[in-house]
Amino acid sequence: MNNLLSVIGLAMKANKLVFGEKVILSIQKKQAQLVIISIDASDNTKKRLIDKCNYYGIDYLEMLSMEDIFKATGKVNRLYFSIIDSNFKKLIINKLR
């Protein structure tokens, strides 16, 4: 898990993460490579993001707690984010294997 959080932290430092309502825009513009949704997110939030990802063909993962996202990014109260770089997406997928 720490390796995964480190990769997310690196993506944050490289400015390859998008937070908040900009996530929806990154999905619609197909800039998002991967959307990560916190297990702490509400059912409505999860459904909205998953529906958008499915419609636009964007991969998503439902994982990490809000606390894990804070540890990795330093951002408080974040429930989801998108990764806008294919190399960071590959790194994250590889860490999960």
* CATH evolutionary superfamily: Ribosomal protein L30/S12
- Uncertain runs: none
Main sheet: strand order: 1-4-2-3
What share of the residues does DSSP label as strand, in percent? 15-25%
Computed CA radius of gyration, to the nearest angstrom? 12 Å
CATH topology, what is it called? Answer: 60s Ribosomal Protein L30, Chain: A
Structural description of this entry:
This protein has 97 residues and is an alpha+beta fold. The chain has a single domain (2-96), classed as Ribosomal protein L30/S12 (60s Ribosomal Protein L30, Chain: A). Helices cover 54% and strands 15% of the residues. The protein is built from 5 helices and 4 strands, in the order H-E-H-E-H-E-H-E-H. The protein has helices at residues 2-13, 22-28, 43-56, 66-73, 86-96, and strands spanning 17-19, 34-37, 59-62, 80-83. The chain has a 4-stranded mixed sheet. Helix 3 (43-56) links the parallel strand 2 (34-37) and strand 3 (59-62). Helix 1 (2-13) packs across helix 4. The longest helix is centred in the middle third of the chain and has 14 residues, at 43-56. The N and C termini lie close together (11 Å). 29% of the residues are buried.
Q: Which features characterize this protein?
A:
single chain; 97 residues; alpha+beta; 60s Ribosomal Protein L30, Chain: A; 4-stranded mixed beta sheet; 4 strands
